[in-house]
Design the sequence.
């Protein structure tokens, strides 16, 4: 299952609502029933010598292809601009695609 980790200098008022919306939104892009999401907000982040709203996103998924990465980059940037008021030039999205043999789940590995 994909995992999205959000780090931002914006204080999110309702964590549960934010991560539920992001999970649902991302699941549609991944074509999965759900996506695991975590949030760390109100962090000290300086981006391009400014403390204006900014973010760092990590997206981890086995077998994520280039088309999905491109779509996620666009869609996540739009979502975060709406929810965090952080423009797409105020954040980075990092994609990680581990081999299934390096992902544990249900007491075993995925590959």
Sequence:
């Amino acid at each position: 299952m994909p995992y999205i980790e959000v780090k931002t200098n914006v204080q999110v008022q309702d964590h549960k609502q934010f991560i539920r919306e992001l999970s649902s939104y991302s699941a549609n892009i991944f074509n999965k029933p759900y996506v695991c999401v975590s949030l760390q907000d109100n962090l000290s982040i300086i981006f391009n010598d400014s403390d204006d709203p900014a973010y760092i996103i990590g997206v981890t998924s086995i077998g994520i292809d280039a088309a999905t990465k491109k779509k996620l980059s666009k869609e996540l940037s739009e979502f975060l601009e709406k929810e965090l008021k952080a423009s797409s030039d105020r954040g980075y999205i990092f994609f990680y695609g581990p081999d299934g043999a390096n992902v544990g789940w249900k007491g075993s590995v995925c590959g």
Q: What stands out?
A: The first strand starts at residue 3 and ends at 8.
